[in-house]
Amino acid sequence: MEFGLLGPVEVREQGRALPSGSGRARLVLAALLIDADRLSPADLLIARLWQDPPASAKAQLHNLVSGLRRRFRAEDPALIETRSTGYTLRLGAHRLDLAEFRGLAGQGRAAAGAGDHTAAAALLDRALALWRGPALADLDGPSVTEVREALHRERLAAAELKLDAALALGDHDTVLREVGPLLTAHPYAERLYRHQMLALAGVGRRAEALAVYRRAYRRLVDDIGVEPGPLLRGTERFILRGRPVGQATAPPARPVPRQLPPAVELSGRGPLLDEVVGRLEGTGTAAPVVLLVGPGGVGKSALAVAAAHRLGPVYPDGQLYADLRGSHDTPADPLRVLERFLRALGVPGSDLPTDPEERITLYRSHIAGGRTLVVLDDAADEAQVRPLLPGAGGVVVTSRRHLAALLNVARSVVPALPPGDAVRLLATGAGAARVAADPVAAREIVRLCGGLPLAVCIVAARLAVRPDATLDELRRRLAAQRGRLDELAVGDLDVRASIALSYDALPAGARRLLLRLGLVAAGDWPAWVAQALLDAPAPLARTLLDRLAEVHLVEPLGRDTVGQDRYRLHELVAEFARERHPADEAPAARDGALHRLLDGWLALAGAADELLGDATGDPGVSVAPAPQDGVRAVRAGALDWFETERAGLVTAVEQAGHAGLPDVAGALALRMSAFLGNRCYADDWEHTLHTAISGVRSTGSDRLLARLLDGLFKAHLQRDEHARLPAVAAEQLAVAGALGDVPLQVLALRNAGLAAMRLGRFAEAFDRLERAVATARSQPVAAGLLGDSLDSLGFARWDAGDAATALPVLEEALAADELPDRSLRTALRRYHYGLALTSLGRFDDAERALTAALRTSVAVGDDLGTAYVQQALTDVAVRQGRLGEAARLLDLALAGHQKLDRPDGLAETLRAAGDLAAAEGRWADAVTALRHAVDIWQRIGAAVPAARGLARLERVSTSSGDGAAAAGYRRQWRAVLAELQLDEAALQLPAVERSAVPT
């Protein structure tokens, strides 16, 4: 196919015009053709299509590209490729007039440079002949106008070069014939006036030539306020002196600056490099500007230089480079930079304007009409950059700041390297074989470097000069509590110094905030943390946070699920803050900041705990008012807030313990307890409680200790750590007794009963639980604990196989107090009540109770409770003969317990699966499921549930005709009951009506 852009957009196949679509489809085709064989980023295409893109812009662009593929499928099904960030039109064997024009113009420029003016004139004439009128003549819109103007500048540059060749050949008639229309289209192009003056002088019309200078002078001064430049002024002087025109046919040689530093090898930057190059390769804007932003040491400069080197052929008129020193104490003066640029472009020092505006205008005039790339490295701010932006060519800017006031700029944030790419960068400097020999240490090294290329390169350099050092030795030094930044310095490469450049340039308030953020041990944190650390109003804290984010010392992470703006510190920035903090701020100020931070966590955790409806009560530790931003997030969803802040809360407990604030650590652990149990975060639950208990034991805060022991009991219970339960309950009971605290004694008695129940010691369990109930009934201060105590007693009666006795106790528990409907305790009581009803054969009532429990569990986000209730509803469905519904519920329960990794819950669900398989006559499946359940129960020491599984295995084996296996199972369960002194009612064997029996 033959594609045309130098005139109306057209597509031809063997001379036959092909439809190219209409409206936006043709505009997309033109945009892809302009950047043919290069990536056209989707966001850039969208910007060309719409000034104010609709929400569906990406989808519409996709549809437009799909339409073009269908239109040209017969001619080339692989014409347009989809890439991760955009599209690429592959020309292959197809022809494009723009590509041919650029190729011929480039050859003409080369021929002229070699002094072959005849070849240059012929090649440039062929190039210009490809134009059929204004570029993209049948398209309109602001983006089209910009592209058209950029293409017309290329056309003008080729035309001027052709006129240079004609003058060199003495072909003055051709110059005079062609220069008039060109001046009409480009009335401010000084080189065209020069061509006309020399051609007129060449044919003996010197007076007319000087009149052309006067007209040019008036036009330039009157219209745009500038006088003719040195080239045109020099031409006037040349003609006035009466010199032979042949001596002035070639304009003064204009140097082609090549100022780029050497390129360095990049790792992991391929897609980002392609994106930068793609934005600068095309002619989509008058002067495309790409801004690379990121923290010091992330590799912005290396990326910019690599892109500029790759773009050399696209910018044949040179590459200008300036280190603007924006992160240093004294940034570069843009007027001094302009002076260097203009000298590099061939302007003599005597012709440099002193007026800033004149200097900027001269710079832009020299860049106009050509293809020059400008690299502005380490920009300080917008004011420094603006004078250095030309009106043509292309620009790459790097900065630690976002330079938000720069408009029409394509910004790309340069991130830290992912682990794999960072390891490859390490191998490049330290040696691939060395890194491959210890991949574990290599990955840990790059993690400790935070993926920062500067840090990785420093480590690689240190290893390169120490062939005897091992990766593991360096890993250990980097992992040390202090001194990591000492390891990340070699020669003039220094991570600490790089961070310090940004830190030292900050105002005092922002420096103070950064230092105090080093106190935050969590990986990421919400905005209110800054307010607490500073003890400042929220607007001021936000302003200072924004200042830190602007220079990439703090990384914004966006909004979380409860509407909070979140941030993080890079590991090495946090290390820098911790290192500088002791020197830059008094200990009292540091301690005050940490105490306010911990108070904030405790106040918000308390508010969230109360909203969950299952709080264990005020821990009795006074706290400051909660930060309002955090309060709004808690009210948006207490469970989601806990989920979002879990890591921060766990580290807050640790920090409070290390800071000598055991009461704060204990109160925080208590406030988190219901949530951690609800979501089965067993490791965090036990860790926070053990951390708090170890501190509280040494302070004599026995009331808080008793509360924490209650939480630890629940954590062990959830993890099926039955053997640990009696000791915790006993210590809790002793502490509560010594205090004479009746409510704490009721809690301890209840736990002691549950511990005995879990171990199959039902007589002991009933004794402890009945004492708990009696105490709660008789002591008004413990009345709020009556419902929970009754619920535990009723559940123990049911677990022992006495559902008839359990039922009225559980009914009383439901009516004992007015719990909110959205409460874990409400769901638990309904669940236990449903179990008793199921055992008594009241399946409809059981289903209603369990369905209500399920609604509550789902509503409060109790995944564990949800899985248990689904398993109980499976039992009801099996016993009602609704086996299809039972299978559906069983799948849900099994998925829930597998996700939560709760052994007891998984075993109960496998037991239910065995009952369902038996009901369907699938004896082998029933045996498999039940054996698996028994194995789990025996492993965790749950003797009674294991006996129940063995009794079911006896039934299934008998039904399947395997009498020997049945006898073996019978001996096993009888031995368990005998040891625990239980009767067969504890086995809770249902009467299952089998829908199928073996034949």
From TrEMBL:
GO BP terms, alphabetized: phosphorelay signal transduction system; regulation of DNA-templated transcription
Superkingdom of origin: Bacteria
DNA-binding region(s) in UniProt: 1-91
Residue stretches in coiled coil: none
A Pfam cross-reference name: BTAD
Gene Ontology molecular-function annotations: ADP binding; DNA binding
Domain (OmpR/PhoB-type): residue spans on this chain: 1-91
SUPFAM superfamilies: C-terminal effector domain of the bipartite response regulators, P-loop containing nucleoside triphosphate hydrolases, TPR-like
Magnesium as UniProt keyword: no
InterPro entries per the UniProt record, alphabetical: AAA+_ATPase, AfsR-DnrI-RedD_regulator, BTAD, OmpR/PhoB-type_DNA-bd, P-loop_NTPase, Sig_transdc_resp-reg_C-effctor, TPR-like_helical_dom_sf, TPR_rpt
Keywords: DNA-binding, Transcription, Transcription regulation
Protein family per UniProt: Belongs to the AfsR/DnrI/RedD regulatory family.
Protein name: SARP family transcriptional regulator
